[in-house]
Amino acid sequence: MNDIDDKRDVTSRPSPRWLVARRSARRATGLGPWVAAAALTAMGLGPIACGGVTTFEGGKALAVVGRPPAPPPPPAPPPERVVVTDDKIIINEKIQFEYDQATIRSESHSLLDEVVSTIKKHTHIKKIAIEGHASAEGSDDHNLKLSDRRAKAVMKYLVDHGIAAGMLTAKGFGKSKPIADNDTPEGREKNRRVEFNIVEQDTAQKTADAGK
């Protein structure tokens, strides 16, 4: 075979894929970058142009040092609404009445239901004195009568819900036993209240109840 034939054989060999792609890209540059990219994709070179892992120049992997902060603790549970002490049944929520009346508002029914449940659970409690108290607003006579009616309304609710009437007494004291300053709205609001005092209990049964 002569030299001419050898040259023809070389030029007739297929060009490498990358060379064909470069030539095609050069021809496509006059059509704009997007057309050139489309041409490369159409030729099956899309993965070469777009695929793989992108590495930013100068980029470095970031290492997280230390432990992430602990999640915040759950909120504390709200205080119990009804608590029994040595000589009282304390309610940590006020019994609400209609304005200047002895009618118990419906939103306080669940609170009184808890009082009923507490009395039934603590079988050592034998007698409870329900006391009604008022602020210094209004006349002494009006406050005394209103606090008495409210105390009796609470007593009736307890009896209607299963507490023996013989366990309970109810009396109003008007403004005679304040627990806060009557010169401020906040103090007057605290003075308008109903209390449950344990006046008789079975100490032996109390010890047994505590062991349950």
Radius of gyration: 44 Å
Which class do the helix and strand fractions yield? alpha+beta
What characteristic shape results from the CA principal axes?
A: elongated
Helix content: 40-55%
Helix and strand pattern: HHHEEHEHEHEH
Note the gap between the termini: 113 Å
Chain-averaged pLDDT = 81
Strand tally, please? 5
Strand content: 5-15%
* Strand arrangement across the biggest beta sheet: 1-2-5-3-4
- Profile the largest sheet: 5 strands, mixed
Low-confidence stretches: 1-12, 45-52
**How large is the count of helical segments?**
7
Question: Please, could you describe this protein's structure?
Answer:
This protein has 212 residues and is an alpha+beta fold. Helices cover 42% and strands 14% of the residues. It has 7 helices and 5 strands, in the order αααββαβαβαβα. The chain has helices spanning 3-12, 17-28, 33-50, 109-121, 140-160, 185-191, 203-210; strands at residues 82-84, 88-91, 125-133, 168-172, 193-201. Strands 1-2-5-3-4 form a 5-stranded mixed sheet. The longest helix has 21 residues, at 140-160. It is elongated. The protein starts with a helix and ends with a helix. 16% of the residues are buried. Mean pLDDT is 81; it is low at 1-12 and 45-52.
In terms of topology, how is this protein built?
Elements: H1 3-12, H2 17-28, H3 33-50, E1 82-84, E2 88-91, H4 109-121, E3 125-133, H5 140-160, E4 168-172, H6 185-191, E5 193-201, H7 203-210
Parallel strand pairs: 3-4
Antiparallel strand pairs: 1-2, 2-5, 3-5
Helix pairs in contact: 2-3
